[in-house]
Amino acid sequence: MPYIQRRNAILAMICLFLMLSLSTVWFSYRTDKSNAAAAPPAQKPVPTVFVHGYKGTARSFNGMLGRLEKSGVAEKAMVIRVTKDGMIVVNGEISNRARHPMIQVIFSDNRASFRQTASWLEKTMHILYTKYNVKEANLVGHSMGGLICTKYIEDTSGRRQYPVIQKLVTIGSPYEGVLIRVFKQNPNNTGDAARDLLPGSVAFKALYANKNRFSPHIQVLAIAGVVEKPALGDSLVSLDSALGGRFIVPKKQYTSKIVYGKNAQHSSLHENKRVDRIVTDFLWDAKK
């Protein structure tokens, strides 16, 4: 083959190779771009909001949240403080890669009425929805905190711009009021909430009157404590009172667990490791 013909043949082969290579690169680029466009956005993890009870502080849930985080089952993502004048102060953020993020809500006025406290929780949840893109959430409430969560669910029924609640856990929440004799022995039990917590109060009547507004989609777990006798329950809330939510929540959505022994005392329930396990199994199917 003459030199010129051989050179032209080589050049033609080189050109063909380059064209094939460029075509492969272009096809790969288009495919990757198409797949990227078609891929759904990462789903934001569902946070769990923890609400303390009457006279509660950061210490109310610090222990439980710390234990759950240490065990690796969940991560403490935010602390939200509500000032006495209703200002919301948020510390932290929710990462898209967080494992079961936990949000701790702390009310500076921890003796405010059911109505006022539920209003503050409502404002908090609205901010989580609008500013932090929290579209779904779980709620955990100790003592009065469980009642506040219940009232919040009733008050926001059918309203937009609030996270859809998936699960609610109440821990020692007195749905039929506290044990009056025990409660009144403490001179520090004062404030609007102290009146609301008494059996038969106007606040309880309103909570039961609005039970038809409780969402038919929320799964509820009530945890009750019994130190010695069911009538005395956890020493502040009788067993019947702690399980009183069954008269508000539809039967098919409601389950309960009872914890026994000295560590089932009212203020010890959120420090009880058995309660930790019950909560994690219910919220996140940790036993699976």
TrEMBL record:
Protein name: Alpha/beta hydrolase
Keyword presence, Hydrolase: yes
Transmembrane annotation, as ranges: 9-29
GO molecular function ontology, one term from the record: hydrolase activity
One family name in Pfam for this protein: DUF915
SUPFAM superfamilies on file: alpha/beta-Hydrolases
Keyword Metal-binding: no
Keywords noted in UniProt: Hydrolase, Membrane, Transmembrane, Transmembrane helix
